[in-house]
Design brief:
Blueprint (H helix, E strand, L loop, with lengths): L2 E4 L4 E4 L11 E3 L21 E9 L8 E6 L2 E2 L1 E6 L2 E7 L5 E4 L7 E9 L18 E2 L3 E6 L3 E2 L9 E8 L2 E8 L1 E2 L5 E8 L5 E7 L3 E6 L5 E2 L3 E2 L2 E9 L2 E10 L4 E4 L3 E4 L2 E2 L3 E5 L12 H14 L3 E4 L6 H10 L2 E5 L11 H15 L5 E8 L8 H17 L4 E7 L14 E5 L12 H11 L5 E5 L19 H15 L8 E3 L5 E2 L11 E2 L13 H10 L5 E3 L6 E2 L3 E8 L3 E6 L2 E7 L4 E7 L3 E8 L2 E9 L34 H4 L3 H23 L16 H8 L4 H7 L9 H12 L8
Parallel strand pairs: 27-28, 27-34, 28-29, 29-30, 30-31, 31-32, 32-33, 38-44
Antiparallel strand pairs: 1-12, 2-3, 2-4, 4-10, 5-9, 5-12, 6-11, 7-8, 7-10, 13-16, 14-15, 15-19, 17-18, 17-22, 20-21, 22-23, 24-25, 25-26, 35-36, 37-39, 39-42, 40-41, 40-43, 43-44
Helix pairs in contact: 1-2, 3-4, 6-7
Length: 754
């Protein structure tokens, strides 16, 4: 029988070396991530290089077997594997399972060593993206001990069998293909189907590597409503003895994606409204444990999501299993992201093969993602060819699922790469990165009108929020109140457009992005509905819960915003109940109904007030307090900023760095100023590119293909915010330069309000 032994204990780790003979370092337990701290603290200076992991295997402690395989569930991003000083394997791709046959190299006492490398290169994806490329052996390592006759362990890290259910009315035809090595004449294969309660339903004994089960009155896997799972076990049997076995769960379901009616599951409209997920955690990096995955899934279920986009790479098998169990509809993708590398084509192909082979049996997955924001600098012939190869590969390997891409805002609607996949989604940040919130819905309407036969979705949208607060939220202020406003607007626009096949909030959780310097807390992207440590659910979390969850609740927003200067303040309540009543110091100020689940109350702000919201038996409360001066603890003061917004001279009726570029460009003199500023910006960017270092940070390449789209996006930025964001592209302005820029803007009159 197959034996699987975890090898997570007693590894010896040495940082910044490729010397497998070195004896300096520390003892570690896997999963392990060497960027768990420096990958989240900002500065874009986290360690990217090679490290060595070593461990000793004693043959006397291993089960007897004909063959021994080492299985790595995740090594980021490239790895060289040695046994007894001899190199046996190399693997490129940091997010998938890979295995090595070590049978012939095992001695009585054998040292195994792995050189793991997350340094920059031009062949392995990802190399440019807005998240930290954490290094390490950050998932389990196993020793798999098998007979000479066994289910294949060499085929792209797969499970050894592929299960293909095809639903036809009330029945299903389930094809099971087993990948068997060295099946002998006196051996047979026993295929067995079990129900959810492990009752045997059907059995086939044969020597064929492919069989078909006819399942009558099949119990469908129906998303969160009924995530029913069967199990298929295949055994190699010799003289009544089981030599090897594999077992996978599967679900029977049908789906289609309709350009008018969205996602349809088992013949029923099933709106996909959900979130994207990065896998990292505070001071853990990517080295997640099962309880971390479970907590993430619990939170995603609580918010009421029906879908998860697992960005931007292959996630842990344990999490895909949770998606199957909880009924999440999944978008799975490879890290072909941000920057097309002509020398990286083979890596996109190998990563896609691993993604499909290793995840083929998960009923939760419905689309394979080809790429993310890859056309940010425009599409060329090599990029298009790479996508066609990947698209054809997906359809060849899996005839049951569709393909998709996540295009970026500046990708024009007529771009030929939009015609390659089966369905399309866009990453839009109107209302955060330029533009305003009202642009989102109309943009999708225009795409739907332009391409009526292409299903369209929104693969990313969101804005950042930290513990900053205001009664007058503005785009770019990083307050929890603006994030709430933003998501209220986007929910109204996206969720009411039936044709949208899926919407995915960016992001469910804050995540590490070491190059970021935004919001007063460097090293993270703070667009999450929940903080990176999973300890605080932001108010916007409850906005989605109000729309998506059936769990009755009421939530008072802005609990951390106590001190307020205004005489009458706005209190926002989220609830999925039809009516909410608000009490101030025990007195009711009225009841309100809200079809959109967002309840707004104007509350007199006198002294200290206890606010209680009630919806039937449900209640939630907060406190506000009248103050004469604004509490600056609520105001973002950028750490290390050259200039903060409140330090800028802004005469009444004149422009300043605090004004939006679109407003400035609405005037003749403002346009002239912007042209001059653009020339300076381009000069700085060109100078930066000459000494450009490769990094895992956020980057955008401005060229003639992307300029027009970027210019449209930039209109919603204040000048100060745009200049600060340029820091992520290694473009910086001195205080003197900014003050000089502001002085020029002060000379330009604002148009008189009509």
């Amino acid at each position: 029988m197959r034996n699987i032994i975890k090898l997570n204990e007693n590894w010896f780790f040495t940082k910044d070396t490729t010397d497998i003979l070195c004896n300096d370092g520390e003892k570690v337990t896997l999963p392990h991530c060497w960027n768990a701290i420096d990958g989240q603290d900002g500065g874009n200076d986290y360690f990217r290089g090679s490290c060595v992991y070593k461990k000793t295997l004693k043959k006397s402690e291993l089960p007897e077997a004909d063959l021994y395989y080492i299985e790595f569930r995740g090594t980021n991003s490239s790895a060289d594997f040695y046994v007894g000083g001899e190199k046996l394997a190399h693997h490129d791709g940091g997010y998938s399972t890979w295995r090595v046959n070590i049978t012939d190299a095992i001695k009585d006492e054998t040292e195994i060593a792995v050189i793991v490398d997350n340094s920059a290169n031009d062949t392995v994806y990802p190399q440019m993206a807005d998240f930290t490329f954490y290094g390490g052996i950050y998932r389990d390592v196993n020793l798999i001990c098998v007979n000479n006759s066994h289910f294949c362990l060499d085929y792209y890290g797969g499970p050894g069998l592929a299960i293909t259910p095809i639903v036809n009315g009330k029945d299903a035809e389930v094809t099971v293909e087993a990948f068997v090595v060295n099946l002998k004449d006196n051996q047979k294969l026993v295929y067995t189907i079990y129900d959810k309660d492990e009752n045997e339903l059907d059995k086939i004994e044969t020597t064929d590597s492919k069989v078909v089960f006819q399942m009558k009155d099949v119990h469908l896997w129906h998303g969160r409503k009924d995530p029913y799972l069967y199990c298929c076990e295949v055994e190699i049997v010799e003289n009544g003895e089981v030599i090897d076995n594999v077992c996978n769960r599967f679900g029977c379901r049908s789906f289609k994606i309709d350009p008018e009616n969205g996602f349809i599951l088992n013949g029923e409209e099933y709106p996909l409204r959900g979130v994207s997920r990065h896998q990292d955690r505070w001071e853990v990096g990517n080295a997640l444990l099962p309880e971390h995955h479970e907590e993430d899934m619990d939170l995603i279920c609580e918010v009421g999501a029906t879908t998860i986009r697992l960005a931007h790479y292959q996630h842990d098998q344990y999490f895909y299993d949770l998606c199957d169990e909880r009924g999440m509809v999944v978008w799975a993708e490879i890290p072909y992201i941000s920057k097309h590398m002509p020398t990286g084509r083979e890596n996109t192909i190998s990563q896609m093969k691993e993604l499909i082979v290793q995840n083929y049996n998960h009923p939760s997955i419905v689309v394979w993602g080809l790429s993310n924001e890859i056309s940010i600098g425009g599409s060329d012939d090599d990029l298009l060819e790479n996508h066609r190869i990947l698209n054809d590969l997906c359809h060849e390997m899996d005839k049951t699922r569709l393909t998709t891409i996540a295009a970026v805002s500046m990708c024009k609607m007529e771009d030929p790469y939009l015609l390659i996949p089966d369905v399309v989604s866009y990453n839009h940040y109107f209302g955060w990165y330029g533009g305003d919130t009202s642009m989102n819905g109309p943009w999708f309407d225009k795409f739907h009108e332009t391409h009526p036969n292409i299903p369209i979705g929104c693969s990313e949208y969101g804005c950042e929020a930290l513990n900053w607060h205001t009664s007058d939220p503005k785009q770019g202020d990083y307050t929890e109140e603006y994030q709430s406003y933003y998501h209220e607007e986007l929910i109204r626009q996206l969720f009411t457009r039936k044709y949208m096949w899926a919407t995915h909030v960016w992001n469910m959780f804050d995540f590490g992005a070491d190059a970021r310097a935004e919001g007063g807390e460097n090293g993270q992207n703070h667009k999450g509905l929940v903080t990176i440590d999973r300890k605080y659910k932001k108010d916007s979390f409850y906005a989605y819960k109000a729309w998506l969850s059936d769990e009755p609740f009421v939530h008072v927003c802005s609990k951390r915003y106590i001190d307020r200067v205004e005489d009458v303040t706005k209190i926002t309540v989220y609830s999925n109940q039809p009516e909410v009543e608000l009490f101030v110091n025990g007195e009711s100020i009225g009841k309100k109904a809200a079809a959109d689940h967002f309840f707004y109350f104007d509350v007199p702000n006198v002294g200290e007030s206890k606010i209680v919201a009630r919806a039937g038996e449900l209640s939630d409360e907060s406190t506000i307090r009248k103050v004469t001066e604004r509490n600056m603890d609520y105001v973002l003061v950028e750490k290390g900023a050259v200039l903060n917004w409140f330090d800028i001279d802004a005469p009444e009726g004149r422009f300043s760095l605090n004004d939006k570029i679109s407003d400035i460009m609405a005037t003749k003199r403002g346009k002239l100023w912007f042209v001059g500023m653009g020339l300076k910006l381009k000069k700085k960017m060109d100078a930066g590119k000459k000494g450009e270092k490769k990094s895992g940070g956020f980057d955008v390449e401005l060229d003639s293909k992307a300029d027009s789209g970027l210019m449209q996006m930039m209109g919603g930025f204040t000048v100060l915010r745009l200049t600060s964001m340029m820091g992520m592209m290694n473009v910086s302005f001195t205080k003197e330069e900014l003050l000089k820029m502001n002085k020029k803007l002060n000379r330009i009159k604002k148009p008189k309000e009509k």
